[in-house]
User: Which sequence fits this backbone?
């Protein structure tokens, strides 16, 4: 149980285009999901907290207009990187909280974004 | 959340126990110690967590000192697949806001 999936697993896009990444909790409902970003040889950095039915809460320094987050259902959150540039190339990871497991976080496999 | 300090890297022979230390000298009474690991190019995987008592599950054991200022994650019989970055995280547990702050972690290399 407690499986989190992400789609796509990797994506290559041209500079200036927008990319949408999906995060799904497959066998449980997640009222809260998180989005992280990880650059090569660095640790995970929290970008935003996504709550179902409400606006996301962004960490300091993360542009909310560039990284659009939608959490329309209890099993799906999406991250859209708008007008992507090469510096947005990174590994994007989502996680979901399983309330029944004392609010433990379960992570998705990550999405590798490369912007040319 | 309390800050943690971990060694940058460690080596371990396959089949031997891997003991990964973590210092969290500023931990508060309501903060738990969590361990996650991240295998290359994958999402982090939950390993174990504890508050005061030592904990054991099918993956590992967690030993927390009596003063709670440090802990050790023990992988009893390390395999090559245990090669990963191990993160020790301290945060308030049992809350509805599960924010995790990842440090640099320990790169554990298990060699044949």
Assistant:
């Amino acid at each position: 149980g407690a499986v989190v999936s992400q789609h796509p697993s990797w994506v290559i896009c041209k500079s200036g285009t927008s990319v949408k990444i999906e995060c799904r909790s497959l066998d449980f409902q997640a009222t809260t999901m998180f989005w992280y970003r990880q650059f090569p040889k660095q640790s995970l950095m929290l970008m935003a907290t996504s709550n179902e039915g409400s606006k996301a809460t962004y960490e300091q320094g993360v542009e909310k207009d560039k990284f659009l987050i939608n959490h329309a259902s209890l099993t799906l959150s999406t991250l859209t990187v708008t007008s992507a540039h090469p510096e947005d190339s990174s590994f994007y990871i989502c996680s979901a909280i399983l309330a029944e497991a004392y609010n433990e976080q379960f992570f998705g496999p990550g999405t590798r974004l490369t912007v040319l | 959340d309390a800050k943690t300090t971990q060694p940058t890297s460690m080596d371990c022979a396959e089949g031997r126990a891997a003991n990964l230390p973590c210092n969290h000298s500023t931990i508060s009474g309501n903060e738990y110690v969590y361990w996650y690991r991240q295998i290359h190019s994958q999402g982090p995987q939950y390993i174990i967590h504890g508050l005061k008592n030592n904990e054991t599950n099918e993956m590992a054991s967690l030993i927390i000192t009596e003063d709670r200022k440090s802990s050790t994650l023990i992988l009893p019989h390390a395999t090559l697949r245990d090669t990963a970055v191990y993160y020790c995280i301290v945060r308030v547990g049992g809350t509805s806001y599960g924010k995790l702050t990842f440090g640099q972690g320990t790169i554990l290399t298990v060699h044949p």
About this structure: DSSP finds no helices and eleven strands in chain A.
